[in-house]
Design goal:
The structure holds 2 protein chains of 2 kinds. Chain A is α/β, with parallel strands linked by helices. Chain A has 6 helices and 11 strands. In chain B, the strands form 2 sheets. In chain B, strands 2-1-3-4 form a 4-stranded parallel beta sheet. Chain B is mainly alpha-helical. Classes of the chains: A alpha/beta, B mainly alpha.
Chain lengths: 257, 661
């Protein structure tokens, strides 16, 4: 079995973000970088499948500058077998269709049985890449999976729907899965695996070799949300507080209607 | 003629005496040696560890702890009894050796007798009195064990035999003396030099001489057989501590207090890290288990044990020994249990009090290393999250690293990267950088430095967590990566002097970082630094009264023996300090050491509440501490103990800053 896991290196969400001079993305000064949270679930799921069926080979793919290799090493330490780094200094500028195009171009002749991506990235948050990869490769895709079980060629998954409802389905492979919080708990890499990861194959490919689609979306502007009025802090006796709270809820919301 | 006595009186000195006597001696010593050799093979299962350097210091340590019983008598009640018994035992042993030396050597071969005259009188009275004191001490030890400390003890049979045998040896000794004196000495002036023997002689003087001689001879042989039995029993009973505990004192850790061994993470051939089986421990770790006398002092002081957690340091050592003897292939982590190993706060109370020089903490960390580095296992998801946060942002809170120096901006503290002149580097640590409550401590410290004319610089966003909690949790890899980054920065700025407000940072930078290349820099905790500024007159304060109690953090106290500097500061500050029962080396951990600051306390009672209750019981206004972890736990603890309005936790720097002139 061949498995592809697509991961993205994103800034830690606790960082202080500033809009870049271009007005279209954030500056990278003072940011700490890590693996996109949802992609970690993808890596973990791939490794769990390999642990289950033994005979599997996991490729981890990431697009970006040389810096993303640091994050790829974590995926290799978690248990991926090899890495494909698609060198692209302006990956942040590419819209989801282009990113999906690059991944699909790489994957099209590799016969991957399973492709995992995150449900969305923590920085751009388009939630499109995984599904677009499935479309371009013309294979099924299932988004926001929270349960995954591999049985002899089929996969039983649950996907999260609105309002806490889950949908169960069985999928024939090959297929793409985008991973949601709750799917699993990503492992902490062990030291021997960190050591081994240093010796694993990590190939770099120029993005120009794989980018054959044109952008369909253009980013117009990036800005911080406008500051709105702050919250209201109520102080006083509990009974009185409750009355005031009810009054506010009646006046400004529909929860008591 | 000079006074003396006939050695071998009544038993004779012919072949019929000497042959069985020496045969019995040789057999008992043979049993002792062969069983000990077998036992040594147990220790050889462990990894090598060099513990025979600095012979002079080791001999001195051994002398202090064995001959002077220094650590033994620290726990007063049973310690003094043991000390008395030991010293008497030692005198009796020396006395017996003198008899053997004269009768079977100097007199036999050279006709020299030295047990005579005044020397004999002294010899006689000393042995007579020490025999009595030994009986009393043994009786007290017996009462202590069987009246006061019966609960939870195991192996009653073995201890009864041991107590009984010792008592029988002492009593038969007096019967021998008494029956001999009843025939040869009673009524002579010499008899008063053996008062106890004399008393016994008088009480059995009604027997005729034949009877006395029969009693004497049979008791002599019984006494001899008992002693031979004692020697042979040493390797099979807790009597072995006579050899192992003394040797362990010789083999004790002479390195920096509490410094852990650094793992070589560059070694690419290494496939296992930490310990999960007996073979991964050092020989000293296994030897420790035999040196343990089960005195329970560690357990009595273990804060985890005291708050109902599954850890007992004593039990851990005995289970380790049990595994080394009977089940060396077993997975030690499963044998000891994961919860036991995660419960330790590395407070060192066990190790500090242990009279047998056992090293508990390093074993626990070594086993944790295996869990973390080999299995990726942590005591809870919150701990794993904190580790990941520290990897990304250099602090366990996961707050953006770039804001690490923000607290200092309004105070105008420069970062070293700005290139301004500085006297000391203030290594702030994660809590004082990011935690609101502890930022107040950092600000107080900076204000004090300013008042004293000391120019302080910080690393700001270039500083990372010192890695201490991670290291104690077993995550040596993360610790070393964080440490390497800090060391590189510190060295690149040519820093000469570092001050920390956190004893964990202090201990780590001062000791642990040495292995990774941070050397030749003066590193101080702020209590010591501020005390010097006060003493030199650079820092001027106005004393003002405050009623408080002071908590010795484990890492300033037991790990670094800094007890006086903070107390001196408080005295100069005009503070009336009332000590808690558990103070100085007996201080009770706040719960946050050993990386437990990253973990939720899910088992047993809350340790911090327990400590706050000890402080609150004194009815003081303020609980002074010297550590951000302690302060954090106490701020939480005063709420848990519902004494928020009565007891305020404060750092010692905050007490001082309120008194600036």
């Amino acid at each position: 079995m061949k498995i592809l896991v697509c991961i993205k290196q994103v800034p830690d969400m606790e960082s202080k973000f500033k809009v870049a001079d271009s007005g279209k993305w954030y500056t990278t000064a003072d940011l700490a970088w890590r693996m996109n949270e949802y992609d970690e679930y993808g890596v973990e799921q791939a490794v769990q499948v390999k642990e289950q069926i033994k005979d599997a080979d996991i490729t981890v793919l990431s697009i970006g500058s040389g810096q993303v290799k640091e994050t790829m090493k974590k995926a290799l330490a978690m248990g991926c077998d090899r890495g494909i780094h698609i060198q692209d200094e302006t990956a942040f500028d590419k819209e989801p269709y282009q990113i999906a195009g690059i991944i699909a171009e790489y994957a099209k002749d590799k016969n991957f049985d399973l492709i995992f991506t995150g449900m969305q990235s923590q920085d751009r948050g388009s939630a499109q890449v995984g599904i677009l990869v499935g479309e371009i490769l013309d294979i099924p895709s299932v988004s926001t999976i929270v349960e995954f079980a591999y049985n002899e060629g089929d996969v039983d998954v649950s996907r999260e729907l609105e309002g806490g409802i889950k949908a169960k389905m069985t999928v024939k492979l090959p297929a793409v899965f985008t991973c949601q919080l709750g799917l699993n708990t990503p492992r902490y890499p062990t030291l021997p695996n960190i050591m081994k990861a240093k010796k694993k194959e990590l190939l770099t490919v120029a993005v120009a070799d794989l980018l054959h689609v044109n952008a369909r979306l253009v980013t117009e502007k990036m800005f911080l949300p406008e500051k709105k009025a702050g919250g209201v802090i109520l102080e006083g006796e509990i009974a009185e507080l409750a009355d005031r709270l009810i009054a506010i809820l009646k006046e400004k919301s529909t929860v008591l209607a | 003629m000079e006074v003396s006595r006939e050695i071998y009186w009544n038993v004779g000195h012919g072949l019929w005496t000497l042959f069985p006597m020496y045969l019995l001696t040789i057999v008992s010593i043979f049993v002792l040696v062969s069983a000990s050799r077998k036992r040594i093979r147990l220790y050889q299962q462990g990894l090598p560890l060099h513990r025979s350097d600095q012979i002079g210091r080791r001999v001195w340590e051994t002398f202090k702890n064995v001959v002077l019983q220094k650590k033994v008598v620290q726990a007063t009640a049973p310690g003094i009894f043991h000390g008395l018994f030991f010293w008497c035992f030692l005198f009796l042993l020396v006395g017996t050796a003198l008899i053997v030396a004269q009768a079977d050597f100097t007199d036999l071969f050279f006709g020299i007798k030295f047990l005579k005259g005044t020397f004999y009188k002294m010899f006689s009275i000393i042995l007579d009195v020490t025999g009595l004191v030994a009986i009393i001490a043994l009786g007290l030890l017996f009462l202590w064990r069987y009246l006061f400390r019966w609960q939870g003890r195991e192996d009653h049979g073995q201890y009864l035999v041991m107590h009984g045998l010792m008592m029988a040896i002492l009593l038969t000794g007096f019967v021998i003396e008494g029956s001999r004196m009843a025939v040869t000495e009673i009524g002579t002036p010499l008899a008063q030099w053996s008062p106890v023997g004399n008393l016994i002689a008088q009480s059995i003087a009604w027997l005729d001489e034949d009877g006395l001689r029969l009693v004497h001879k049979s008791t002599w042989w019984l006494h001899f057989a008992l002693v031979a039995g004692f020697i042979a029993l040493i390797p099979y009973t807790k009597f072995r501590h006579i050899l192992t505990t003394s040797s362990n004192s010789f083999f004790s850790d002479l390195g920096l207090k509490g410094k852990l061994t650094s793992l070589d993470l560059e070694d690419e051939d290494k496939e296992t890290f930490g310990a999960n089986a007996v073979k991964d421990m050092t020989w000293k770790d296994i030897f420790d288990t035999d040196a343990c006398t089960s005195c329970e002092r560690c357990q009595d002081r273990c804060p985890a044990y005291a708050t109902g957690k599954p850890l007992s340091p004593m039990k851990l050592i005995s289970q380790l020994g049990e595994a080394a003897r009977n089940n060396p292939e077993a997975n030690l982590i499963d044998v000891l249990s994961h919860d036991v190993l995660w419960s330790c706060t590395t407070c060192r109370a066990c190790q500090e009090i242990c009279p047998a020089s056992i090293e508990h903490v390093s074993k626990i960390v070594e086993l944790r290393r295996s869990m973390v580095l080999m299995e990726g296992e942590f005591p809870g998801e919150e701990v794993m999250a904190a580790m990941e946060q520290a990897e990304v942002n250099g602090n366990p809170f996961g707050i953006g690293y770039a804001g690490r120096g923000d607290w200092a901006s309004e105070l105008g503290v420069p970062t070293l990267a700005e290139g301004s002149d500085f006297d000391v580097l203030y290594f702030v640590g994660c809590y004082s950088s990011f935690d609101k409550r502890n930022i107040r401590v950092a600000k107080s410290f900076v204000e004090l430095c300013k008042a004293a004319g000391v120019k302080v610089g910080i690393l700001g966003k270039e500083e990372k967590c010192c890695g201490e909690p991670m290291r104690k949790m077993g995550n040596e890899y993360l610790y070393q990566s964080l440490a390497a980054e800090n060391i590189e920065k510190i060295m690149s700025y040519g820093v000469q002097h570092i001050v920390t407000t956190c004893p964990h940072c202090f201990n780590t930078l001062n000791k642990d970082y040495q292995d990774l290349g941070l050397t030749g820099i003066e590193i101080e905790h702020h209590t010591v630094f501020l005390e010097k500024l006060l003493a030199s007159g650079k820092l001027l304060i106005e004393a003002a009264p405050l009623s408080c109690t002071y908590h010795d953090s484990c890492y300033l106290g037991r790990h670094n023996d800094i007890y006086d500097a903070p107390r001196a500061i408080l005295e100069k500050a005009g503070v009336t300090l009332v000590e808690m029962d558990k103070n100085r080396a007996e201080g009770f951990c706040c719960s946050a050491g050993g990386g437990r600051i990253l973990a939720e306390e899910k088992l047993g009672e809350r340790m911090n509440i327990k400590r706050v209750e000890m402080a609150a019981a004194l009815g003081r206004e303020v609980l002074v501490s010297n550590c951000p972890f302690c302060l954090t736990m106490f701020e939480d603890g005063v709420k848990g103990a519902e004494v928020e309005d009565k007891l305020r936790p404060k750092d010692i720097a905050e007490v001082l800053v309120e008194r600036l002139c």
